[in-house]
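Lecture notes, unit on protein representations.

Consider one protein chain, 236 amino acids long.
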Amino acid sequence: MLGNVHEIYHSVSGEGISQGIPTIFIRFAGCSLRCGKTENKNLWCDTPYALGPKQGSFMDLASILKEAEAIDPLHGYQILLTGGEPLEGKNGEMSSLLCEHFYQTRIQKNKPYPAPRIETNGKEIITEEINRVYTMDYKLPGSGMENQMTKENFLVLRKRHNILDEIKFVVRDRYDFERSLEVLREFSPDTNVLYSPVFGEMDANELVEWIKKENPPKARLSLQIHKVLWGNKKGV
């Protein structure tokens, strides 16, 4: 079994409820979505360098674990599987193997963050296994990718009832925000809800005012602190 890995590095988690936690990032290469590229608008993906399947190297489980454990031999960092898309194709199979390994190792050794966090794009199917937690995007109209969303994932999140799971909305404009409220009313998730502005397009101050006024259940603003600290670049 091989996964297509773009990079493995350590930093702090940049967003969501795990923001600021020391984290090992395992970034897979390849994603079938192209968010934001609509009409005269530009691609907004944070990681365009990992979108193509040729932008990674094929690694087996042992090789990935060796790199991760060289960074964190005491198993104290959060593990974050991201991309690209960590659940797409063979990467999804590798992500499952990694989740099971880290979960079992850390449970047996009584280590923190036993379940790796998977950042996934909302298209790929998520599952009920307890050996992972999810940050699941729901792509709004401004992304041009809403028709790719797997809405059954909301039912899985409800069955999981995991207090660490997240739904993430990336907002381009007021229409996107209104659509997010419709989605929340339709599916009534009991999951953490993140709102992030499209970097360089949406005014975060304006988004804050919308969130304050509408106050969606369990919602919070999520800014990307890695961009605040180091700018819009890779490996941080």
